[in-house]
TrEMBL record:
This is Alpha-carbonic anhydrase domain-containing protein. PANTHER family: CARBONIC ANHYDRASE, CARBONIC ANHYDRASE 14. Residues 21-276 form the Alpha-carbonic anhydrase domain. GO terms for cellular component: cytoplasm. GO terms for molecular function: carbonate dehydratase activity; zinc ion binding. It holds the Pfam family Carb_anhydrase.
Amino acid sequence: MSSRILPVHLLDEENPVEEVVQIVVPDEGTVEWIQYWHEFEGHLPTPIDVSITGSMLYRCPELKWYNFDVYPHKVKLTNTGYTLVISPKWKTERPYLEGGPFLEKHVLSQIHFHWGADMMEGSDHTVDQRRYPGEMQVTFFRSEYLTQEEALRHPDGVTMICYLIKYDVNPDARLSWVIEGFQRIQEAQKFTRIGPLPMSRLLPMFYEDYFLYWGSLETVKGDSYVIKWLVPRATLFASFEQMSEFRKLWDPWDEPNLRNYRPLQERQNRHIFFINAHWNQYNSLLPIPRVPEPSISILSPAYRKNSWMLPIQNRNNDNVDSENAKVSATHFVPTKI
C-alpha cells in the first residue's frame, strides 16, 4: 500500500526549534483509509440519518462471519431498566467477524435494543429520513483488547452493527425466542436465561450492502467513546404484538419503558460509506425478506482443527445439517426489485 505523507510543522514555545511531524494518509480505496477518518469524525455525535443519497460508494473485501452457528453455553437476557441486553457466553471460541472494513478480528460481545411508544418510532437511526419501530444493536470489539471495557478506550476498539426493525403483519421468528423470556424480566434489573440458540438464529448475516460511519457514543456517566457504526440494508421485522412486548418492560421507577431511543443528530459533513453496493438501490433498506437462504456462517480454523471444542449440539454431522436447515428457515434473501 502506498500512502501520502503530510508534514505538520510544530513550534515549541519554550524551545523555538521547528519540528516536523509526518502524518501518513492511506490511499483512498483501502480499508486503512476508512480507519483513518476516525481521527476527524470519531467525536461527532450519533445517531444520524443514513441514505444511499449523499453516501460514498466504497469497495471492501467480503465480510466473513465465523462461528455464528455454534451453540453458546448460555444466553442471559437482562432488563436493565433502560434497555434489553442479550449476553451470550461460549465455553471456547466466540463468534467473530473478519474482512470487510476490519483490519483485525472483532468478537461478538453483547446485543441490546431500542424501541418507542408506538409503531411510528423506536429506532435510533433513521434511514431516508424515516424512523422505524425498533433497532437491534450488536456490539463487537477488537479481539486483542480482550474485553469490551478495554476496547472502548481505543478508537479502533469497538464496532456497533445496527439492524433496523421494520413492521410486518407477521412475527419474525428470529425475535420470537428472545421475546419468550420477557415475562420473566418485566421488572428492572431482572434477568433470565433463554435458548440457548446460535446467534445465526437472531442476526441477519450479510457480506455486502451496508453503511458505515464514525461517531461517538455518550454514556449516562458522561463518558464518550469512538465507535465504528455499521447499518446493514438487511433488516429484522416485527409484528405489532412483538413490539408491544418491549413496551411492557419496566423502567427503574416501575413504569412501562415506552421510549429508549436517542435524539437524532446532524451529519455534519462526515463520511457515510456505502460498502459493496449490490441490490437495487431505489430504497436504502432492502424489502422485508421472504425467500429463505442458508446461513453464511463458517467454522473458524480453531474449531475445524479441534472438533472437541464444539458444543455437543454441533459435533454430530447429522445434527449440524439439521440445524443448518432450521437456521435457513429464519434467514432470507430479498427479491430484487
